[in-house]
Amino acid sequence: PVSWLGDVYKRQAYNNLGYTLKELGENQKAIVHFKIALEICSFEGNEHLRSSCMSNIYNNIGIAFKSIGFLEESEANLIKAINLNPLHAPAYNNFGNLLNEKADLPGAQEKFLKAIDIEPSGYSAYWNLHSTVNEEKHAKAIIEQCLVHAPTFKDAVFTLAGMKAFSGNDS
């Protein structure tokens, strides 16, 4: 008898609808659905599942707020996500993207590196990190590391090819 099982399906439905709306650019509607999902995120008796669930939803809310330019609200939600689950690599990665957008490159680098520390095979943190460095050689090394984990990631493949072409290396 797991009393919260019905809520799991409802929460997942609202979270999925919010995610879909976010992908369609309907970020304000997405936030509403994410917040409903948060209210359903009970998981009585299992604090780990509850924290993980809420962290994921706060991360999604943070992304949606960033997409509509509400950077302070985005930051507050990403911080909640990280506080609830300090091992949530995507939240660190998204926080890094937010800080990068705010031109806080050292802060962004710190968050990307934390995401990589937690999830070394997560290629997106490497991809995002490369845009925060000043030296071409360093950026190229980071992109190469990104491609170790995602060899067909087209943005990285094309960027690295362009970097090599501009430096005279046509291989």
Task: Walk me through the topology.
Blueprint: H1 5-23, H2 27-40, H3 47-67, H4 71-84, H5 89-101, H6 105-118, H7 123-130, H8 136-149, H9 154-166
Helix pairs in contact: 1-2, 2-3, 3-4, 3-5, 4-5, 5-6, 5-7, 6-7, 7-8, 8-9
Explain this structure:
The protein has 171 residues and is mainly α. It is 76% helix and 0% strand. The chain has nine helices and no strands. α5 runs parallel beside α7 and α8 (136-149) packs antiparallel against α9 (154-166). The longest helix has 21 residues, at 47-67. The chain is elongated and about 60 Å long. The N and C termini lie far apart (61 Å).
Question: In sequence order, what are the helices and strands, one letter per element?
Answer: HHHHHHHHH
What oligomerization state is this entry in? single chain
Q: From the alpha carbons, calculate the radius of gyration and give it in angstroms.
A: 18 Å
- How far the N terminus sits from the C terminus, by CA atoms, comes to 61 Å
Question: What structural class do helix, strand and pairing data support?
Answer: mainly alpha
Q: Provide the helix percentage.
A: over 70%
Principal-axes shape call: elongated
**Average pLDDT number:** 91
Number of strands: 0
Number of helical stretches of at least 4 residues: 9
Strand content: under 5%
Major sheet summary line? none
Low-confidence stretches: none
